[in-house]
Amino acid sequence: MALDNQHAGIAALVGQGSAPAADGDRGMFAQRNGGDHIRTYIIRRVPLDWIAAAGLSPHDTGGIRDHLLEEYAAWGPAMQQMITDNDGPFVNRPIMALPVPHTWQHNPTVTLLGDAAHLAPPLGVGVNLALLDACELALALAKAPTVDKAISAYEATMLPRSADWQKRLENGAEGLLSADMFDGDEDEVLKG
Q1: Residue 95 CA to chain centroid, in angstroms?
Q2: How does pLDDT run across 97-152, given as a tens digit for each residue?
Q3: Which pLDDT score is estimated for 192?
Q4: Residue 83 neighbours by CB distance under 10 Å
Q5: Is the pLDDT at 188 greater than 60, yes or no?
Q6: By three-state DSSP, how is residue 118 classified?
Q7: Contact between residue 21 and residue 8 where contact means Cβ atoms under 8 Å apart
Q8: 3-state SS, residue 144
Q9: 32 CB contacts (<8 Å, ≥6 apart)?
Q10: pLDDT of 148
Q11: 3-state class of 75 per DSSP?
């Protein structure tokens, strides 16, 4: 594969799965994706306007890369490579969550599903809940005599389930920064 030749160090670190690292303030998560790609997520506690505050533009991949390298200067070369060997543009994806519980006044013809109904940190649950929401709403619409009754039936199941998951995941993004999440030789990866 081209990736294994072009970015051998990163490919070896990530292997066929993923490579997480965190130091309590910053985190990084690299994941092998289809199409011979590795996607790296950089996780930090920063204000929403951090790019403008740094005097950068969202389209200034080189400037953002330099800024991130300064922030991750104490991390080892293998981890810094995740920043330097980026072949694509930088994409800013703030981690957001809805208040727990998130509810709304029933509407007889409109409802919410997926992230619109229960946005939470990206901890591996959201897409599964969205698919379950879609299936349950489709089944309710197929079985109910009216759209209003279908939406009521769907919301009666979805709202308690999503509130439960939101409670479980509340403040879960903190775990993405926890040095305890790493199960290998943390000093070896982070420091060099």
Answers
A1: 7
A2: 788 888 899 999 999 999 899 887 777 788 899 999 999 999 999 999 999 999 99
A3: 45
A4: 20
A5: no
A6: helix
A7: no
A8: coil
A9: 11, 14, 15, 16, 17, 18, 38
A10: 98
A11: coil
- Rounded CA gap, 82 and 143, in Å? 50
CB-CB contact of 7 with 85 (8 Å): yes
Q: Containing H/E element for 40? A: strand 37-44
Whether the model pTM is above 0.85: no
Helices first, then strands: H and E counts in the chain? 9, 3
**Is residue 43 within 8 Å of 58, Cβ to Cβ?**
no
Tokens of 144: 């109910």
Cα 69 from Cα 76, distance rounded (Å): 11
The values of phi and psi at residue 32, to 5°, are: -75, 130
Rounded to 5°, the CA angle 168-174-176 comes to 100
> With bands split at pLDDT 50, 70 and 90, how would you rate the model's confidence at 186?
very low
- As given in the structure block, the two tokens for residue 190 are 């982070």
Tokens of 104: 């709304």
d(CA 95, CA 120): 8
> Is 184 in a helix, a strand, or coil?
coil
Give the rounded distance of the alpha carbon of 34 from its chain centre: 17
Tokens 């403040």, residue? 171
Q: List, in sequence order, every residue forming a beta bridge with 30; answer none if it has no partner.
A: 19, 40
pLDDT in tens, 62-97: 999 999 999 999 998 888 888 988 878 888 988 877
- Cα separation of 37 and 124, whole Å? 20
